[in-house]
Amino acid sequence: MMDSTIIIDERRDAVSLPFGFEETHRFISRLHSTARHTATRNCEFQPHSHSAYTITAILSGEMVVTIGESVFELSAGQTALTNVGQTHSASVSAVEFVSIGLSPVLVNELIADIGLTRVAADIAFRASVITDGEIVRMARAIADEMSHEQLGHAAMLDTLVRQLGIQLLRHHFTIRMSDHIELSRAGPVDRRLRRAIEFMHDNFGREIALEEIAAAAYLSEYHFARLFKRITGVTPHAYLSNVRLERARKLLAETVLPIVDIAAQVGYQSQSHFTKMFKSVTGVTPRVYRDASGG
């Protein structure tokens, strides 16, 4: 897949925040990582999940985060950690934060680089909220690099993200051997759900009945829905919605397809519904994302 760097820089100069920074939203997307630097008075993120390990460091202000069924109040210097597929949401007010997504592919590469096994491993964060000054320092460095596109900008970002990943592996990841985890086209998955998850990744552009997804796993609808929720923490419908929105981000960044066509390609019957869902989990509209990516 083509590597791409996407920068979104949306400022509202008329708004002066208490901490002395302008309201800003910046996004960068690389092949195996993403980064977001936001300073905002007010923003909400509806429940969703990612196909990446997500690290959200609070630089100033406060954020209320729900991860799974637990609610946390984060302040400056704290970091929220969410696992692949873990449902989370947030409400922020007068806050500055940096959020970095590390793909399972990158995490597995780093595990191999430092001499650990990456075969059939169950990789997860040990805690949902941490206080680690080194993580916050790296997050600030990533935010600074996003703000100033100097020579070697992309290479520096990749280096900082890899350093962040190693710090997480040293202190905040748990790696356990598992007979249930295997690598698939959709990344590391539980082998009991592999066929169903690959089916969703192959067919997200059309309406899919639960019966079809369950049939891919050779299970009844009832038993499949219960198993899927128990293993992933989300319903099949919620997982499918996240697959569609992540695919939409790539299409917006890497193609010139009209937004209405992208909405249809990822399974939305109307552009307005797609825009509403996209903004609810990213904080920006598809148009802002597209314009900033140069697509």
Distance between the termini: 16 Å
Write the element-wise H/E pattern from the N-terminal end onward.
Answer: EEEEEEEHEEHHEEEHHHHHHH
The pLDDT mean sits at 85
Largest sheet: 8 strands, antiparallel
Number of continuous helical runs? 10
General description of the model:
The chain is α+β, with helices and mostly antiparallel strands. 40% of the residues lie in helices and 32% in strands. The chain is built from ten helices and twelve strands. Strands 1, 2, 3, 4, 5, 6, 7 and 9 form an eight-stranded antiparallel sheet that branches. It has a two-stranded antiparallel sheet with strand order 8-10. A hairpin with a 2-residue loop joins strand 4 and strand 5. Helix 2 packs antiparallel against helix 3 (153-171), helix 4 (194-203) packs across helix 5 (210-216) and helix 7 packs parallel to helix 10. The model is unreliable at 1-17 (pLDDT under 50).
Characteristics of this structure?
295 residues, alpha+beta, eight-stranded antiparallel sheet, two-stranded antiparallel ribbon, 10 helices
Write the layout of secondary structure elements.
Elements: E1 10-16, E2 22-29, E3 33-48, E4 53-67, E5 70-75, E6 78-82, E7 88-102, H1 104-113, E8 121-125, E9 129-131, H2 133-147, H3 153-171, E10 173-177, E11 181-184, E12 187-190, H4 194-203, H5 210-216, H6 221-232, H7 236-254, H8 259-265, H9 271-282, H10 286-293
Antiparallel strand pairs: 1-2, 2-3, 3-7, 4-5, 4-6, 4-7, 6-9, 8-10, 11-12
Helix pairs in contact: 1-3, 2-3, 4-5, 5-6, 7-10
